[in-house]
Amino acid sequence: MTATNDIATKIRPASGKLGILTPGLGAVATTFIAGVESIRRGRSKPIGSLTQMATIRLGKRTDNRAPLIKDFVPLSGLDDLVFGAWDPIPDDALTAARKAGVLEDRDIDPIADFLSSIKPMPAVFENRYVTRINGTNVKQGKNKRDLAEQLRQDMRDFKAKHGCDRLVVVWCASTEIFIKPGPTHETLAAFEKAMEANDESIAPSMLYAYAALMEGVPFANGAPNLTVDLPALLQLANDKGLPISGKDFKTGQTWMKTVIAPGLKARMLGLRGWYSTNILGNRDGEVLDDPASFKTKEESKLSVLHTILQPEVYPDLYKDFSHVVRINYYPPRGDNKEGWDNIDIVGWMNYPMQIKVNFLCRDSILAAPIVLDLALFSDFAHRAGMKGIQEWLSFYYKSPMAAAGLQAEHDLFIQQTKLKNTLRHLMGEEQITHLGLEYYR
Rounded to 5 degrees, what are φ and ψ at 168? Predict the structure, then answer.
């Protein structure tokens, strides 16, 4: 038996119920929850979900083995999922889904009974971190450490109430203001001391991550906040043997960049500038209308092109290209975000060309299957004994976390290869390199 087969035999089965807890019960979370329930009732298909719809090639091309990922990897089944959430706004999932305006009544009404049964737990929330939202469903405590302990109790209570075998937390709440890592984030002792002192450097999202890890629960960060990507929490995740990943769901415009930019680089075409602007009118757009929150998002969006194009390696093609990102809050657009890209490229003999992209996407429709995949893969990673940063899940993130000293990979196709090869490795199958040597035999 090979070493990889040994790994496969040690993966704990996906038995019992898996509780998926989301900080945030807004557009993304309600669309995710409603979609899963719609699929469970046979009303729709899990379009956009790799765990449910994608296949994975195994062995040689001539072997003709390409099972669905969900049939190859021991993932929790959709019927075993239970949902819970925290939100500063007390609306149940039905009310929140209607207010979000993502789904039409024809899709909400048949599952209204289910959605109305999901009521958000009081959130850890401070207006200074998300200035455009005010809520009444908010926890009170003597300090931030106390609030984190309340979150831990919420997780224990939810697990007991719903008979869950395991939990996973996926951050689906709004973007917090930009925070730089500092001394309070370096060690667990410093972090806990800062919580007790109500230090402003400890944001609510960090408390959710801390609470999850202390409870033995994997954590995935779907926003660009400084959250679980702290030395203190990275160490806690490793000490507790827990998988973590982040950050910022890769849905619309940045997803397109990770598709187009690798194509330009593959053809060795130059880039003079890439101008991106977005208009959206959902809660996320309102939050990002605040400059402090936009700064957090901007940092996430701007990092993609430089990492893919490597201007330090290809200065003749990519040195000093202009990259501009704008986000504009425009209420009439709602959740149907519109992204415009103007790409000025350079070809043979320095002749200029342009690419124009107008992506009229539905932000939460694209994000919902990402939440599902991250929840199922994070749980799988935990049962497989994986811990710390899960770089193989970079496929899903705008600003992927990477181990110290390593630069995150942004190329979508390299990310996809890494994801599938990780699954092959864990299940005792050979990795696919696409290197064919038949001509040399």
Answer: -145, 145
Strand partners, 68: 55
Q: Please state the domain extents for the chain.
A: 3-249+365-426, 253-360
Cα gap 346→271, rounded to integer Å: 6
The structure tokens listed for 219 are 């954590």
Phi, psi at 331, each rounded to 5°: -50, -40
Q: What is the length of the chain?
A: 441
Taking the CB of residue 72, how many other CB atoms lie within 10 A of it?
18
DSSP sequence for 355-384: EEEEEE--HHHHHHHHHHHHHHHHHHHHHT
**Using CB atoms within 10 A of its CB, is residue 357 exposed (0-12), middle (13-18) or buried (19+)?**
middle
Could you give the CA distance from residue 20 to residue 55 in angstroms, rounded to a whole number? Answer: 24
Q: State mean pLDDT over 207-226.
A: 97
Laid out side by side, the sheet with 243-246 consists of 81-86, 17-23, 164-171, 219-221, 243-246, 388-389
pTM above 0.90, yes or no: yes
CA dist., res. 30 & res. 334, Å (int): 15
Task: Please report where in the chains the tokens 């298909």 appear, as a residue.
Answer: 45
* Architecture of domain 3-249+365-426 in this structure: 3-Layer(aba) Sandwich (3.40)
For the residues 277-290, what does the mean pLDDT come to? 70
* Topology of the domain covering 253-360: Dihydrodipicolinate Reductase; domain 2 (3.30.360)
Dist CA 363 CA 117 (whole Å): 25
* Residue range 73-106, pLDDT digits in tens: 999 999 999 999 999 999 999 999 999 999 999 9
- Retrieve residue 35's tokens: 């979609």
Pairing of strands 338-346, 270-280: antiparallel
Is the alpha carbon torsion for 39, 252, 82, 174 positive or negative? negative
332 CA to centre of own chain: 26
Contact 362, 337 (CB under 8 A): yes
234 pLDDT more than 50 = yes
For residue 7, the tally of other CB atoms under 10 A from its CB is 16
Identity of the residue numbered 313: V
